[in-house]
Amino acid sequence: xxxxxxxxxxxxxxxxxxxxxxxxxxxxxxxxxxxxxxxxxxxxxxxxxxxxxxxxxxxxxxxxxxxxxxxxxxxxxxxxxxxxxxxxxxxxxxxxxxxxxxxxxxxxxxxxxxxxxxxxxxxxxxxxxxxxxxxxxxxxxxxxxxxxxxxxxxxxxxxxx
Length: 161
Known about the structure:
Blueprint: H1 6-23, E1 30-32, E2 35-40, H2 42-58, E3 63-66, E4 70-73, E5 78-86, H3 88-93, E6 99-106, E7 109-117, E8 122-127, E9 131-134, E10 137-139
Helix pairs in contact: 1-2
């Protein structure tokens, strides 16, 4: 991996994944706000707190925006955007289809980011000008210059098929 933010992002995601693995499945999820489809678990809160604290220590001058708690520190042009558990309903129900996400933007432009899917042992990291990595190995992001020209395919096999 390249120098810059990727090693830090990887360490934050790894720490969050450890918490997620310990708390995975059979968890009580409570509704958030008026939208009953938006749920939160204790794991969301613990992982969000862990990620935010690590960022505060390493980059005290950066803004932190966390899904569950909003803007935690509004300090400048660099902002960390966190989703402690994307797919909370799946996580609480014991489905492995959830992820922990972190991204860094500067003046609204993506700088670096990562996604870990703890139950599937998959980690994706990318940094502007530094490449894309899957589980520590260089990955190919394709050649499309615009997202609209890209295609993404996900295949999930049902365990009974």
